[in-house]
Amino acid sequence: MKHRPVRGAAAIAAGIVLCAQAPAAADARPVTGPEDHYAGSQIERYERAGGAPDLRYAAEDQVLGHDVSSHQGAVDWPAAAGAGARFVYVKATEGVTYVNPQFPQQYHGAHAAGLTRGAYHFALPDVSSGAAQANYFVDHGGGWPGDGRTLPGALDAEYNPYGETCYGKDAAGMVAWIRDFVGTYRARTGRAPMIYTSTTWWRRCTGDNGGFGDTPLWLARYDTQVGPLPASWGFQSIWQFANHGALPGDQNWFNGSPDRLHALARG
């Protein structure tokens, strides 16, 4: 299923407009704490691409959703559902020391409002093993209950907000760390996690490894097209296409029908 830009077409529930911005400099912002690290915060910092103004998406075969963290605070979930949200990913953890203080309100509130929800973990591969972080994630909200309305947990693999881009690891070391996380999460929950990343980061930090095709891809690219995908995947399950819009937090399309979204949640 392809995302196709259509000028003047009505998007699902609300038009999502991508605004042109100049690329951000790599050192544009100081190092901050985990409350400022959310899915795409560092991709926005390093890769920011200008979108075409007034470009809207026809989305007959896609489902609109978003992702949030403590950065958004308490979310008005009935309003988000009314604006067209059908699914959401909520940041649960970072490393092995941080838990999103807004997680209960965001995760359970989304469920109460009828959204399909999932949790994600912001990876810090230089502070502990992949297994340790997968266990911390599962133990602090990132599990998969198999209730038919919860998406598999997601591993947020992006630029290091505290230092060296690839967390001091070469490609083989990064691949091994991700495999450790994925394998541990699968053993704990019975599901492979979603992997959130950008093509540029994946190429740089894993050597464009092609061995993760059995995990769903959540691709970050703030532009008018999905663009090239990392080597592991032939298609994306979710595309994070903008960092603001009609919904709280980042804007996402699920690449399929509502039935396919529910199938992903059911496992």
What does this 3D model show about the protein?
The chain has 267 residues and is an alpha/beta fold. The chain has a single domain, classed as Glycosidases (TIM Barrel, Alpha-Beta Barrel), CATH 3.20.20. It has helices spanning 41-47, 77-82, 103-112, 130-142, 171-189, 199-206, 258-266; strands at residues 4-6, 56-58, 63-68, 87-94, 98-99, 116-122, 154-156, 194-197, 217-220, 238-242, 250-254. An eight-stranded mixed beta barrel has the order 3-4-6-7-8-9-10-11, surrounded by four helices. The protein has a two-stranded antiparallel sheet with strand order 1-2. Helix 6 (199-206) links the parallel strand 8 (194-197) and strand 9 (217-220). Helix 4 runs parallel beside helix 5 (171-189). The protein is globular, with a radius of gyration of 17 Å. The relative contact order is 0.19. Residues 1-31 and 50-58 have low confidence and may be disordered. Residues 1-24 form the signal peptide. Its EC number is 3.2.1.17. It catalyses: Hydrolysis of (1->4)-beta-linkages between N-acetylmuramic acid and N-acetyl-D-glucosamine residues in a peptidoglycan and between N-acetyl-D-glucosamine residues in chitodextrins.
